[in-house]
Amino acid sequence: MFGGSRMVAGGGCGVVDALEPSVKDKLLKNFCDKELISYHQIFEGSIFGIPSELAKLDKTKIRYAWFKCRLSTNEEIWKIFPTSWHVDYLLCI
To answer: Where does the Vps53 N-terminal domain lie (predicted)?
Structure first.
């Protein structure tokens, strides 16, 4: 499904690797921030200044299940990055 795109992105990752490490760091931070927007909206957001019920500590299992599902759903897309970049790890921290 993503074969051609993966090759192009993989080549782009090679270029990024050849640049200063700060370029890769900024790219990965931007990517992770964008990937986690919905997480923040659901679990850390507030509605009219009232904290979300899902933001509470006792909802950890729901947060974990959501994130685990997200990881498996987007695994194919994230494979465009070299494994040495540890994108899945960066999304979790």
So the answer is: 11-92
